[in-house]
Design goal:
The strands form five sheets. Strands 1, 4, 5, 6, 7, 10, 11 and 12 form an eight-stranded mixed β-sheet that branches. This protein has a five-stranded mixed β-sheet with strand order 16-13-19-17-18. A two-stranded antiparallel sheet has the order 2-3. The radius of gyration is 24 Å and the shape is elongated. 30% of the residues lie in helices and 28% in strands. By secondary structure, it is an alpha/beta fold. Bound molecules: magnesium ion (MG).
Length: 390
């Protein structure tokens, strides 16, 4: 997220009680491959470079569920919704109004597989139209039945299935929601229709199906298994110890009687981890993306290298599964700082802490790390990437 005013914002509606899908928790908080539906839906918007900020509308009483599902994501504060979906959307738009967005994408938390292609299509359409809707053709023949008996065949010409996100110029849709508050309209495009806003149809995506019934969770798991593959990457780095009074490891500053030497802040652990992420997408190495010869990186905090690698991975529609860092040194002692290191990496990568591991070992006083001449780090990362990524 680059800015929090103007631009295109995402609003994820997760304010339903979600009982139809069964289960102990409301469906928007049920997990697919370890991630709640609502988190996946919000992340799809967050990970798109053209979306500046995202907020989620939640049901009253769901604050703790939301925090557990989405606490690791850099989202705006959640908005507590109202009795009907339409009320929830209006309250969400009112909350976003403080940021003066130009455009808003209103998305249903129950549609977890939102691709960049669909977002691109919607944003494109908004250059010429105040609204845009992803649609799919109706392929099956439609029938009207009365009391279980087929009565007639419905002409499907001109009929489409509507998906979300539904995208709008912000002020017109906010005003429409205010004006038609309390009317039972099924979606945001229906409100736009009432307000006379034209809405362009753009190509939807079969993968953007809505998770409604219990069987949809199986379909979602199957989609994830078939459309994504897991890739791994590894990284290794060494920096020399020299004069100084602290070292920075995993983004945490640790007082020490020596310092790590290097062009940036010499955070050997974040450098190894950056290379691991780049390795997972086979996109070169840290030296290629941030040449040590470039004066811009003199003394630079290494979190930006790591964040950049994560952004490259996400720009391919990928998601980080887990990361694991091993620091190799005799001193300083890592254990007292381990949890702070995990928390800092989790923050940089917008991952749950449970998916971040930091370990340390010595080399029994052997070799350059054993003699205290330098610190080494190695890292691994696993990521899920769309199989069509090449
Ligand atoms: Mg390095």
């Amino acid at each position: 997220m680059n800015k929090t005013t103007g631009g295109a914002f995402g609003l994820v509606v997760a304010a339903g009680q979600g009982e139809r899908a069964g289960g102990a928790v409301p469906k928007q908080y049920r997990r697919i491959a370890g991630e709640a539906l609502v988190a996946r839906a919000a992340r799809a918007l967050l990970d798109h470079q053209a979306i500046d900020a995202v907020a989620v509308v939640i049901a009253p009483g769901h604050e703790a569920l939301y925090q557990e599902a989405c606490g690791h994501l850099p989202l705006l504060d959640p908005v507590v919704g109202g009795a009907e979906r339409q009320d929830s959307v209006r309250l969400g738009l009112e909350a976003l109004a403080a940021h003066a967005p130009e455009k808003v994408l209103i998305h249903d938390a129950a549609r977890p597989f939102l691709s960049r292609v669909v977002i691109d299509g919607l944003l494109d359409a908004l250059t010429n139209s105040p609204g845009a809707l992803p649609v799919l053709p109706v392929v099956d023949t439609l029938k009207r039945a009365v009391d279980g008996d087929i009565e007639t065949t419905v002409d499907r010409a001109g009929l489409f299935r509507a998906q979300t996100p539904q995208a709008f110029h912000f002020l017109p849709i906010l005003e429409a929601h205010r004006h038609y508050a309390g009317e039972a309209l099924t979606d945001d495009v229906a409100i736009a229709e009432r307000a006379g806003l034209s809405v362009a149809a753009v190509a939807g995506d079969e993968a953007l199906f809505k998770v409604t019934e219990p069987a949809d969770f199986e379909r979602a798991a199957r989609h994830l298994a078939l459309a994504f593959e897991t890739r791994i990457g590894s990284g290794y780095d060494v920096h020399r110890l020299g004069e100084g009074n602290h070292v920075t490891l995993c983004g945490v500053k640790i007082p020490h009687d020596q310092g790590l030497l290097g062009h940036s802040d010499a955070d050997v652990a974040l450098h190894a981890l950056t290379d691991a992420l780049l390795g997972a997408i086979a996109d070169g190495d840290i030296g290629q993306h941030f040449p040590p010869s470039d004066p811009r990186w003199r003394g630079a905090a290494s979190d930006r290298f790591l964040a950049h690698a994560a952004a490259l991975l996400r720009a391919r529609g990928g998601e980080i599964v887990n990361v694991d860092v091993t620091l190799i040194c005799e001193r300083p002692k890592i254990t007292p700082h381990r949890e702070a290191m995990r928390a800092r990496i989790a923050e940089i990568l917008a991952l749950p802490v449970a998916r971040v591991s930091v370990k340390a070992t010595t080399t029994e006083r052997l070799g350059f790390t054993g003699r205290g001449e330098g610190i080494a780090a190695q890292a691994s990362a696993a990521a899920r990437l769309p199989i069509d990524n090449g």
